[in-house]
Amino acid sequence: MSVQLASQSVSQGTPTPRLGASLEELTAWVQDRGQPAYRGKQLYQWLYRQGARSLSDITVFPKRWRENAEPVDFGRSTVHHRSIAPDGTIKYLLQLADGNLVETVGMPTSKRLTVCVSSQVGCPMACDFCATGKGGFLRNLETHEIVDQVLTVQEEFDRRVSHVVFMGMGEPLLNIDNVLAALRCLNEDVGIGQRSMTVSTVGIPGRIRRLAQHKLQATLAVSLHASNQTLRERLIPSARQYPLEDLLAECREYVQITGRRLSFEYLLLAELNDRPEHAEELAKHLRGFQSHVNLIPYNPISEVDYQRPDRQRIDRFVRALEERHIAVSVRYSKGLDVDAACGQLRASKNKEEFFRHSSPLTREDSFLSAESRL
Ligand code: SAH
Known about the structure:
Shape: elongated
Number of strands: 14
Number of domains: 2
Helix content: 25-40%
Low-confidence stretches: 1-11, 337-343, 351-374
CATH architecture of the largest domain: Alpha-Beta Barrel
Distance between the termini: 30 Å
CATH superfamily of the largest domain: Aldolase class I
Strand content: 15-25%
Strand order of the largest sheet: 3-4-5-6-9-10-11-12-13-14
Radius of gyration: 21 Å
Largest sheet: 10 strands, mixed
Order of helices and strands: EEHHHEEEEEHEHEHEHEHHEHEHEH
Bound molecules: S-adenosyl-L-homocysteine
Mean pLDDT: 87
C-alpha cells in the first residue's frame, strides 16, 4: 500500500512521535536526538504494544535522557465515558487532546474484536436519518487520533483487535489522507489485516477512484440507501452534487481497478424505501455488479420520525433481492440497549454535561454506528 504519512508537527526535522509514525520515522527521530538506532525500535514497541503515552513512560530509555529530552506527548486520548451492553459491546466516549469527544465502539464475539472508529468530530454530510449529521461538523481527526481509538479498545478489552470498520462519526473520504495513513499504520504497525478493515462512505466525487488507485485491499462499503436519485437526494443532501449514476460508475471503476467486490449499504426505512418495487429498482442498478448488499434496519434517532421496518418487511425486501440474484445480508445493531442503537452516546452525554456544568459545548448530537454483521 503506497500511502503518504499525514503531515505532523515537525521538530528538528523529524515529526514528533505519534501513533501513525512508522519504524523508520521513529528511528530517524531518536537518531536526530543523538540516540542509537535500536532506541527507535524500542520507541516503536512501546508506542504500539505497551501503550506508552509519553516519552517518560518508556522505562527502557535511559532516565537521564527521558528527563532531559523535550517533553513528548504521544497524543493518546482518555476514556471519558463507557457504556456497556449485555452483549459485551462497549461504547466509548474518548476525549481528545483539544477536549473534543468522539465515539468509538468495541464489539466482541468469540472469534473477533471489531472496532467501529470515527474519522471526524461530527460530520458535514447532514444525512437526514443520521444523528451525527444533525449536529454539524467540527474538524477532521488526525491520523494518531484514529489509530488511538483502535489501541484504546485493544487495551480496554486486553485482547487483540481483529477488525476495524470506519463507520463511526464522520465521512472518511473527506479525511482521506489521514484515513489512508491510519489504514497503513493499523495494517503494518498494529498488525490488522487490510482485508479485515472496512471504509464506509456516502460517496464523494473522485475519492472512490483515488482509493482504487491506492490499490487498497480494505473493503469499501458505499452507503446507497435509495434505489433512485430522487429518494437519495431526499435522504442524503450531498447526493444533489453526485448523481446516483455517477456514483455507481465510479464504484464500477473501483471494482475494475482493484478486482475487489464492494458492499452497498442500504438503510431500510419503513414505507419509504423498503417496498418490493424499491428492491426491484435496486436490483436493476446492481445487476452484474461484483457487489454485496448490506441491509441496515433504521435505528431510530430522536430528531426525525422515520420508522424501522418490522421483520416481515425486512424479509420481504431480502427475498425480492435474492430472487433477482443479488447477494444480500441484514446487519442488526449490537449494543441496542445502551444509549440507543446508533449510540447517540455523545449526544446524551453532551446534553447531560451541558445541563450539569453549563459547559459551552458546541455540539449536542452525534451518530455512532455500532453496527456489526451478526
Ligand atoms: N459517512 C460514512 C460512515 C457513516 S456511519 C457513510 O455514510 O457511510 C456508517 C453507516 O451507518 C452508514 O451507512 C450510515 O448511513 C448508517 N447510518 C447512519 N444513521 C443511521 C441510523 N439512524 N440507523 C441505521 N444506520 C444509520
